[in-house]
Structure formats: C-alpha cells, structure tokens
Predict the 3D structure of the following.
Amino acid sequence: MIPGCRIVTRRLFNLRHCLSSLNPSCHPRHLSQSGHCNVSMDLKGVLGVLEQLAPLSLAESWDNVGLLVEPSRPRPIKTILLTNDLTSAVMDEAEEMACDLVISYHPPLFRPFKRLLQKDWKQRLAVRAVEGGIAVFSPHTSWDSAKDGLNDWLIGGLGHGQVSVLSQALCSAPQRHRVEFTAGSQVELDSILKLLKETENSEAFQYTLLRNEEGGQQVILTCPGSALTPVVQTVLGNVSTSQSLSITQVQQNPMLGCGQGRHVVLDEPLSVGVAVQKMKTHLGLPHLRLALGEQKTLDAVVKSAAVCAGSGASVLQGVKADLYITGEMSHHEVLDAVANGTSVILSDHSNSERGFLTVIKQRLANHLPDSVTIAISKRDRDPLEVV
C-alpha cells in the first residue's frame, strides 16, 4: 500500500497524538483498558488523525477541503459532530450539544465571497461557527478517493468481488521533468555538469550517462519542476548540447487503491432486483430509483457494477458495467446508460454518502482518546424525499 493511504496501528498512533495534544503528558496510567489515552486532544491532533484516515492530497483539484473555520481561541476537542451537510438545523444541533468541531462531508464554504452577511444562509453558518468557537472541517472528495473510503463502502453493498479504481489517483509528490541532451566530448560534458551542480536544488537531480555510437555522451537528467528553468538555460548556453535538447514531464506514480469511483466484478453475480434490495439495505432507504438497461428486466444478471458517490455521471460515463450506482444523474445521462444496456440505480445525492458516517465514527473512535465524544447528526438529511 502507498504511504498516506494506510491507517497506522491504533495504540502507537494514539500515544503519539496524546504527546502532541494540549496536555503533553500521556503516562500509561492515563490509558484506558482499550488502550486509548484519557487526556484531552487539541484541534491539531484531531486534524492529524483525519489526515491519516484520508490525506487531503487525494481530493480533487477543484474541491475545497480541510479546515474551513478555525476558532481564534484554542481549546480541547471534547465533542465532534459528523454530518453530510452543514445546514441551519445541523448548526442548531451543534450549538445545543456545545460542539467543538463539525466534520461536514460536503464543504459548507465552497465559492469565494467578499463579505459575511446575514442574507446568505452559508455566510450565516460561517458567522455562527466563528461566534460559537466551532471549528469546521470538510473532507469531501478525499474520502471518496481514499482506499477503504466512501466509494469502497458504497460498492461493498453489492457483495464481494474484484474491485478496481475508475479514475486513478496519482502521487502528490512535486512534479519532475526529464531533460535529455548529448555532449560532443568529455570536456564539454564535464563543463556542463559542473554548471548544473552549481544550480539550486542540484542535490535532487538524478543523472544517467550513455555513450552513443559517435563517441558522444548522452545525458538523461531528472529534476524537480522548480529547477527546470535553470537546467534548461544551462544546457542552452552550449551550442552543441542545445541542438539535442529534449524535455518530457515524468508521469506521477499511481496511489494504488485510491481514486474516484469503483468497478467490481462480483464473485457471485446477482439479478438487478436483488441488487436493488441489497442497496436499499446498505443505504438504509425504503426507496430507490431504477432505470433498466435496454432489453433488461429485474431478473437480468449483474456480473459487474460501477459506482460513484454523489453525482457520478462524469466518472461513470463510458464505463462498461451491467449496473451503475450513484446518487444522481441527469435525464439524458440516464438515457445514454440505458441505451448502452446498463441499468442505473439512483438514491439521490447525499443518500449515497450519508451511511459512510457510521464507518468514519468508528474509525475516529479507534484513534481518538476516550475524552472525545463523537456523534452523528440526527437532523442531517437529504433535502429530497418521496411523497
């Protein structure tokens, strides 16, 4: 597994964060029988746990994730409220329970604004959070992308099978470039290499030297994106090497098991009708919307399925599967899938995500001290209902 997608061992992790919390002493006498530390934990410590569960680097570039509201006066985190959406009703709930931190799956603050006024409901929420000293954190697409995250949970409702990622996440390491050029002689090569070693961050360069048939030296140099300009300027400063210069961007390594959407080839195929019932149970819903693929019935066999929590059409588009499962798709996106013989199950947007809060609650409980109470909002719900 790639570092950053793995949850570290519970006992060691708890101990380490106890040492960095508001109360730095975490003597064994403060540990409960479960191995949790009974001293308090500050906001920084909780954010560290959340980062271990799902690194924010996994989020999509357009998303607004992480700590959105930070109180000016640090205090121990005693109560955390989990919600899919931070609405006025959920904020009421947070204030009533003297909540210290709201973890809202969807970011309540997304688009930039220049003022905080009472006429806008999201701005009102931001003001209330600041006035109440309530921190607000949003993970959104980092939870979607993480290994064993939201999409893995969602596809697990159909049963076991061979699961793969639809849109692979790449390593978040700094971008690197490969620079290739040929030096006509050893003297010329030594001169250029000397200049390159004087370049800033030259310790991060990687070299490979190959002798060509004409007796020249081919240089393959890999450097960080931040050093690309001075490297290229050095090579271009020599007439001979500049004529052979080639620059390519190095492909980032994939983060195995991480990315948007999931595809499964089921160990035990099932019918569309059975898939609907299993997803109702998994999501805790009495109703789902179903569009049968062309020439398909409720008895049609489902051997493979693709899922994407929330609004998943852009991720699912063109994926070969017997069944799509997501929160919402447009009318024409459903028609496209049906025409291709793929059946579609829609739960409404947040209904495809909310059940994962139970999983997150348990994971947080496994990594936070017993002094922290974790609750799932009782007032959070999808705005749409069947009437």
Summary: Residues 1-34 have pLDDT under 50 and may be disordered.
